[in-house]
Specification:
This protein has helices spanning 4-21, 28-39, 44-55, 58-70, 73-97, 111-131, 134-139. By secondary structure, the protein is mostly helical. The chain has one domain (4-139). It has 7 helices and no strands. Keywords: Membrane, Transmembrane, Transmembrane helix. The chain crosses the membrane at residues 74-96.
């Protein structure tokens, strides 16, 4: 799996391409939430596993179970999609209301838009994970050395 750099660069680059190709309808506002989900989203499970290993005991088992559930392209969307879309739409409204985020339309993202951005970010994250996976690369005849 690639580190955080490729996830961040790919998501921001594709967000910039979408902004350019849609004449600003896919705005930096959309790119922010798309990038957060591509960069950190499904790895929340890995973070919970690490946190559980620090606490030890039953927290280690729970953290590992959460990591296995959340670090999946569809389970991430099904488990965390609704709570995150509510949170992101609230954050979007807060940032626009406080003039901390510039938006052309001055309208916050709806919950459905946030859900779509969460889904797109998850699929982008796993696209890159599987692209750099050694077994996939070896199967396709590519000779990539992945640490």
């Amino acid at each position: 799996m690639p580190g955080p750099g490729p996830h961040l660069m790919y998501a921001m680059g594709s967000g910039l391409a979408l902004t350019t190709s849609t004449n600003g309808r896919f705005s930096p506002h959309h790119t922010l939430f798309y990038t957060v989900n591509s960069f950190f989203g499904p790895d929340i499970g890995s973070f919970s596993e690490w946190l559980g290993s620090l606490l030890g005991g039953p927290a280690d088992t729970v953290g590992s179970a959460v990591a296995d559930l959340i670090h999946h392209p569809l389970y991430y969307i099904l488990i965390l999609g609704f709570p995150l879309c509510v949170l992101y739409s609230w954050i979007s409204a807060f940032l626009i209301q406080r003039h901390l985020l510039d938006s052309v339309s001055r309208v916050p993202l709806t919950r459905m838009q946030c859900f779509y951005l969460i889904s797109a970010g998850s699929f982008t994250h796993f696209f890159l994970d599987h692209l750099f996976e050694y077994r996939f690369s070896a199967h396709c005849g590519l000779q990539l050395w992945v640490a």
